[in-house]
Amino acid sequence: MDAYLIPAVDGVAYGLLLAIAAAGLTVAFGAGGVLNLAHGTLIAAGGYVAAATSSGTWTGLVLAVLAATVAGAAGGGVLAAATAALRGRGHLDQALLTFGLALAGGDLLTTVYGPDTLRPRLPAVLQATVTVGGHRYPVDRLAVLGIAVVVCAAGYVLLHRTRAGRLVRATVDDRAMVAGIGVNPRLVDASVLVTAGALAGLAGALSTPILGVGPGTADTVLLLSLIVVVCGRLGSVPGAVAAALAVGVVQTLGVTTFPTVAPYLLTGAMAAVLLARRTGLPAQARP
Amino acid sequence: MSTAARGSAAPWFGSQAARWRSWAPASLAVAVLCAVAASADPYLHATAARMLPLAVLAASVAVVTGHAGLPTLAQVAPYAAGAYTTARLALAGVDLALLHLLAAAAAGAALAGLLGVVLVRHRGTVVLMLSLAAAELTATTAAQWRSVSGGTDGLAGIPAPRLLPGLPPLLADRAVLLYAAAVAIAATAAAVILLGGNRQMLLAAVRGNEARAAASGHRVYAYLWAVHTGAGALAGTGGALLIHTHRWITPADVGFTTAALALLAVVIGGATSLPGAAAGAVAVLTVRDVAAADLPGHAPLLLGALFVAAVYLLPGGLTALPHRLHRQRILPTRLRRQRHQDLPAGSGAARPAVRSTP
Q: Using a CB-CB distance cutoff of 8 angstroms, which residues of chain A are in contact with residue B125?
């Protein structure tokens, strides 16, 4: 039983982290048409900042998570400024720009933090294991799972119950109408990119205790986020959350159950989703 | 002056001028190649020869990105298929260069045909995303399939090819350079000729207004699939050249970085110009390798900066630069319209076909 249950819980935790990361990506594309290929780099930046700031104390941990979130938001701000200058030049130019920034940013991160995989120093309590219902489970993963649930719930409330969240969803559906009620859609785009960056930094900070952060992190997470975003339909947050959970479970259960085909499972699943959805993706037709 | 008065002379002049401009980078590249081949430095010969596989790959990316209008990173897949086919043939004792090239082109076309079934049904950034996945899968497969690729250690000591049975193997640096240049130029020229005339018009129609092209009875998916498959053959040829010039291969050679370099070369060279893309690849590699001497280990930083600069400073690429400079002056409308066809699909799709006089 442990052989499946533990990876399944790991998968849900990983899926929730992916959901936090991918929600910003999907909204940025749905609202502003920015396919942010630097998203993985923001997540890696959050992870590096958190790993470097953490000191093994509770204060250090809180500071690390905050610093990672702020670093991610700052990265999002840079992206917002960089892509705003390309308005009207199409999705491809924005994708290429963010791709270039991702390459340069990844290089800078490796230069600053070195080529090794880093892990944060956690308070001793978090490094123990607990026994829940007869199963032993690491405390840090349980904590990450708890925080991820809280962040996802807060995100839902923010997106559905506040004016800002409603404006963001409205911009995904109809930019012109948002402009018509007196809100500048570009302001929404910029704030979405900054928020998405902050979420990416947070996701990076939360995932480092489990996965560590290294030179390969950015590429891996970007690819996973893109699969999540494509499978969950571009621009749709609930779709992204559902897809992220599926990806997380497939990723962890697949690796333990079918180790040989695991690298192909996700891309295969994405191809299957796209082939089944013959009409294409909703957000691609907009100019 | 009215447009009609100039109408009779302008199209001929315009298309001819555009054609010469699109071949200008190619002529420059050939001139540089001749100068390099004439020099006495074998290191220079080897360095130049090793740039040519990427130039062919970039030309194939330009076919898919510029002519079919699908921005792609997935051309490394047929490139890898061609390279590993060639490597395996050479290791099995088949050493005829022409056989390698044909087998690699066939393998590349087959894989691109398979990928094309999915890719040509999507547009814009979705293609970019899907092709990103395809590029990652290529590198994963190359690393996993140990019996073919040798795993992450790669394959080394691949025997050199022979041009004809009985001739000595192609080992001398200058001979390899001349052979690789001949293949690269022939393959690119063949692709340019195949994409000329009516086919160019049809593809421009598909890029410009797909719904209208389909409504006129054109089988849009079939055209795009054929172009994608043909570009796969070109990329496969590039893969064969990779083995012939390097004689070793690792999964990193067909990985994401290679895909990104090829796309960058296309962005710099101008999406619809195959010679421009090939010249762009040589330029990118030159900048990277020359500057890599000063900044060891920082190739991604440099490439990223190049990418950003290319997006901001060169919309439409190098081949569109004369056009953009000319646009400041008063030009006949017909001539302008001709030149708009040189621009990539993304920048020209929504432009009205007819505009008022300046």
A: 29, 35, 91-92, 95, 284
